[in-house]
Design goal:
Helices cover about 40% and strands about 25% of the residues. The chain is an alpha+beta fold and about 220 residues long. A hairpin with a 4-residue loop joins strand 2 and strand 3. Helix 1 crosses helix 3. The longest helix has 30 residues.
Amino acid sequence: MNYRDPQLRARLAADYVSGAMRGGARRRFEGLMAADANLRRQVRGWEDDIYPLLWSLPGRTPPGRVWRAIESRLRPGAAPWWRGLAFWRIASGALAALLVAGVVIYPMQVDRAARAQLMAVLQSPEAQAMLVVRADEAGGLRIQALQNLATRAGDKALELWAIPPGQAPQSVGLVSPEGLTALRRAQGLAGVQQLAITLEPPGGSPTGAPTGPVIMSGDVLKI
């Protein structure tokens, strides 16, 4: 395996951050990162793209039966864990830790909200993630292919379309089937509900509107 191949490095970094890389492969990759500053920077770039999505997900409280099942498996026949003195000692310590963490995390969340960005993950009809599109404050768009799309493109061009609610698709530009593509749109992704990629003739749609099939799409999210 040629670890100097830019496409391979980008794919491995994405797999590492997303959690798709496991076991021995993950440990080997961590060894590579320890000796490769550029690879560490690639991983941090993916973390910047993916982790904000996790922050944007709403919290969910497991039903009570889940906690009861855990309790019965850990201490069958024992008194409920919340009745013990040790529990309250731990709880008070945990509460103090949470209060301290809140002092640190809350400003981070406020700052994150102030710097909210727009992005989208475009998926194929088979629900495979294909592209990550991220907008900056100046209207720049960074489009990262998560895999080599040359096979899907064939002899066609990959054209990116912005779709505002209730409006016709607007061409953003052509996307490279591999690696990173930089495009610009005056409004960035503001006011855009969805992004889509269609297969078009080389050079792009001759009509200014989509003429080929949609091969991937995704909703625009605020992170």
